């Protein structure tokens, strides 16, 4: 997994993209400081759209490589 | 994440492992609260022991105690409710909902500190829950069963409810379903088109869209007749709330399903499920009840399909996954938080993890399979018509 920083809140997550539609995101700290996820129901929010935009930007910039290898 | 797997002459060796000896920490649903409110004590075999559930006659509250009486081991579930206590069938000792001995009619006095184990209970969504923690601690803040508004609304049907005991399998098998996209096609004859998981804290969610299987008749599939959207979360180790929206005849049918279980022993559990359906405009109570019953029938078929797989499969600790499989290892890492002491829960078990499957390849292959099935059926129909 490769680190990606959220352009909005600055939090860093680990991301793996096997293809453009596939996305795995591993958080390594609490979601309390994310403007879209913070709150008691964070687990029930499917995605932070700002972080998602940063991940897509990282793919376009070539900072995040799409990698079909390795175990799922 | 399956690096510890070994091979034998190049062949993968399955590590069946052993089901855990302990039982998950968390709220476990025991069934609809109503079914325990008949004035009788009820026996529940769970967590490697037996429990008694009874309703205090005066306060009306439901209580759960160890079934076996600390006096001489009588089974309270075979006793009688007397006032707010349950009376043992063996020597009539009375036990209150708080676990204290409430009286021994033939004795001068109750021995000091005569007490049995009272289990913490919760009534929510018209269901009864019991809290299990091997360390004996109360539920941490925020760990509770969310209220389902439809369960308390006239605009929704009543719960349907079924239970099914599964022997020869640990309850991890049913939890694995959370990430198992492909089995919905092969086992349940449905057609997933979108699939995403999110795990965070004690909640694990599955977001799934699926299309109808046009190659299946109503008899072959429990899958819906229209496009379906499902949003399903486990709150803790055993209670899943599944919100489902189905597009049918120009209307959206809204359903809430419960899929829950409690362990009986390390290799058996009781699986329970039920549904409520939101009434469409013009629907009578009877029609809503019929719709819920139909949904429930579909659920029953679906779980029977799962059980048939579990009865014949092996436990596997090191599944060999492909690129279109969901995050089985991460799900199990999440699930492990309920099996370790509270102080041993590691951040990676509860840190947020999201996984969205690229379904393109699977959808393409499944479409082709559906078309092949349709063509085969059309050819068979034509042949029968020709014979006539
Ligand atoms: S064993 Fe229960 S009253 Fe004696
Ligand atoms: Fe299943």
From TrEMBL, chain A:
This is Ferredoxin. It comes from Streptomyces cacaoi.
UniProtKB/TrEMBL annotation, chain B:
It comes from the Bacteria. Residues 27-130 form the Rieske domain. Its cofactor is Fe cation. One of its GO terms (molecular function) is 2 iron, 2 sulfur cluster binding. Keywords: 2Fe-2S, Iron, Iron-sulfur, Lipid degradation, Lipid metabolism, Metal-binding, Oxidoreductase, Steroid metabolism. InterPro entries: Cholesterol_7-desaturase, KshA-like_C, Rieske_2Fe-2S, Rieske_2Fe-2S_sf. One of its GO terms (biological process) is cholesterol metabolic process. Homotrimer. The two-component system 3-ketosteroid-9-alpha-monooxygenase is composed of an oxygenase component KshA and a reductase component KshB. This is Rieske-type oxygenase.
């Amino acid at each position: 997994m490769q680190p990606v920083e959220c352009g909005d809140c600055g939090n860093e997550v680990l991301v793996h993209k096997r293809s453009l539609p596939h996305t795995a995101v591993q958080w390594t700290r609490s979601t309390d400081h994310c403007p879209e996820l913070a709150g008691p129901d964070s687990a029930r929010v499917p995605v932070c759209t700002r972080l998602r935009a940063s991940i897509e930007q990282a793919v376009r910039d070539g900072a995040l490589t799409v990698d079909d290898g390795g175990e799922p | 994440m399956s690096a510890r797997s070994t091979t034998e002459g190049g062949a993968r060796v399955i590590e069946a492992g052993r089901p855990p000896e302990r039982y998950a920490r968390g709220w476990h649903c025991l069934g609809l609260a109503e079914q325990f409110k008949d004035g009788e004590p009820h026996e529940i075999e769970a967590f490697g022991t037996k429990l008694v559930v009874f309703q205090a006659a005066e306060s009306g509250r439901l209580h759960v105690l160890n079934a076996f009486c600390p006096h001489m081991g009588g089974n309270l579930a075979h006793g009688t409710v007397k006032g707010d206590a349950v009376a043992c069938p063996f020597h009539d000792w009375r036990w209150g909902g708080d676990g204290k001995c409430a009286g021994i009619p033939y004795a001068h006095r109750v021995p000091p500190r005569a007490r049995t184990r009272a289990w913490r209970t919760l009534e929510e969504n018209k269901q009864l829950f019991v809290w299990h923690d091997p360390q004996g601690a109360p539920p941490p803040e925020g760990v509770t069963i969310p209220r389902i508004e439809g369960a308390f609304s006239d605009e929704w049907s009543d719960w349907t409810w079924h239970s099914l005991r599964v022997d020869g399998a640990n309850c991890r098998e049913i939890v694995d379903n959370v990430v198992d996209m492909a089995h919905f096609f092969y086992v349940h004859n449905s057609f997933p088109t979108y699939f995403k998981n999110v795990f965070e804290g004690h909640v694990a969610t599955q977001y799934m869209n699926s299309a109808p299987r046009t190659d299946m008749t109503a008899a072959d599939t429990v899958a819906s007749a229209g496009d379906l959207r499902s949003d399903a979360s486990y709150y803790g180790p055993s209670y899943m709330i599944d919100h489902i929206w189905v597009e049918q005849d120009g209307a959206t049918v809204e359903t809430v399903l419960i899929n829950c279980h409690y362990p009986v022993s390390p290799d058996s559990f009781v699986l329970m499920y039920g549904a409520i359906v939101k009434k469409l405009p013009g629907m009578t109570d009877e029609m809503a009840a019929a719709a819920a019953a139909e949904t429930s029938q579909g659920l029953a078929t679906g779980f029977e399909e799962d059980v048939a797989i579990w009865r014949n499969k092996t436990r596997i600790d090191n599944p060999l996954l492909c690129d279109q499989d969901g995050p089985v290892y991460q799900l199990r890492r999440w699930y492990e938080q309920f099996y370790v002491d509270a102080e041993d829960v590691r951040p990676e078990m509860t840190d947020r993890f999201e996984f969205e499957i690229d379904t393109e390849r699977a959808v393409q292959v499944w479409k082709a399979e559906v078309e092949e099935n349709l063509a085969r059926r059309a050819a068979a129909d034509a042949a029968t018509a020709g014979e006539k």
